[in-house]
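Changelog note: in this version the structure field was regenerated for every chain. One regenerated record is shown below for reference.
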Amino acid sequence: MKIQIKITDLKKVSELDFYWKNSDYKNLLKEFGYPDVEAIAENELLDYLFLAILDYKPAEAAEIILTYKMSDKLNDGQIQNLANEMLLDKLAEEYPDPALHFDIFNINQFLRKAYNGSFPDTEATIITAEIQGMEEEDEMTKEILIKALSNGLRESNLVKRLYGDQLNGTLPFEDAGKVIWHFRKLSENEVEIITSNYLIAREDFGTMEFEAELKYFEED
């Protein structure tokens, strides 16, 4: 399949506003021992939560939040290690399992804000792109998006170096979700894509308008 891509906007951000909900703030206030959560006005939940968090040491707070968000993915020992290491390293970029980078990014940046910069800063990239040439019956997927974007990336880009065989169809692309964190269609031909700035930054693109021929793995 051959498609045309035009990147109309690309920005680097330090937080993603859709990750945390008021329900998360309420649940976390309870986890941090606040006694009367329901009495707090909705627009004051985050302020109260930050105050509650500051009663704890950074690693202790990190462990509570990681347990709340990631106990279905990590065991207690892994969470404890991660909580301690987050203060020192950019684990949203360096943690061995890239499938967890999205959650770690959001938790890290939340803690960084609560503790006024004590945690290392990490960034995400939000790309808005127009994609032409897809058939009506073709469903937009993370695999299609990363294969499309890769055609505009320089050869030195980390995604091209790590996933070259998957991008060119030599291997099945089982890791697309580790690169594309989130996407949503803005219109019939326009899509917003979120990834790690460590993986894809503005300077990684050689051009903002390009063509892509998507190749898929075929079993013998």
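Spot check on this record: The two ends are 20 Å apart (CA to CA). The chain has a mean pLDDT of 96.
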